[in-house]
Amino acid sequence: MRKLVVSMWITLDGFIAGPNGEMDWVNAIFDEAMANYEAEVLGAADTLVLGRITYQSFAGAFTQLADNPSASPGEREYARKMNAMRKVVFYKTLDKGDWNNSMLLRDVSPEQIRQLKQEPGQNMLIYGSASIVQALTNHGLIDEYQLLVHPVVLGDGKPLFADARQQTKLDLLKTKTHPSGVVLLYYRPANS
Question: What are phi and psi of 13, to 5 degrees?
């Protein structure tokens, strides 16, 4: 069975974005270790699971980046991989999915996610999309959380688990510290 993996950048005080969705705290410490991690996590997946906002942001960025001559070869290769992957998109206000290989789903259906996990293939990867992570966590469908804790305190912002309906106990699988001070924490649900 394929794993459903969350890869989330988070601040030390538990926010994934500033109060107005700001992500400026991330760019200052993106380094070679972070690039290696991103290539590794993306290389182990063949499906992206996204909410509408993340989907539209990624589609706009990666479709242009893939052939942008001013981007580095690594950035272009990363964008090509993202463009080629299957995308499962949860939406409420999207008419169509223009990014290639997109499958639109109106609601988070635990049964549909279970079916997708039973299909052959590599991991299914969730980037961003906190509301999707929250819903899938509430349904017990996340197999692994990879949290990249940044050495930043925002004081206010968008929390990762704002709508958690129940306690979810996690087992720490491993940790890795990057030279930038980012600490990567790998968790899986306890008793899985």
Answer: -95, 15
Tens of pLDDT along the chain (192 residues)? 899 999 999 999 999 999 998 888 886 667 788 888 988 999 999 999 998 888 888 888 888 888 889 988 888 888 899 999 999 988 777 777 788 888 888 888 888 999 999 999 999 999 888 889 998 999 999 999 999 999 999 999 999 888 777 888 999 999 999 998 999 999 999 987
The CATH code of the domain that includes 171 is 3.40.430.10
Q: Which residue range forms the structural domain that includes residue 19?
A: 4-189
**pTM for the whole structure:** 0.91
**Number of domains into which the chain is organized:** 1
Three-state DSSP at 46 gives: strand
| Main-chain phi, psi angles of 184, to 5 degrees | -95, 120
Looking at the DSSP bridge assignments, the partners of residue 176 are 184
**Cα–Cα nearest to 3, from 105, 88, 121:** 121
Contact (Cβ atoms closer than 8 angstroms) between residue 186 and residue 47: no
Structure tokens at 66: 């893939």
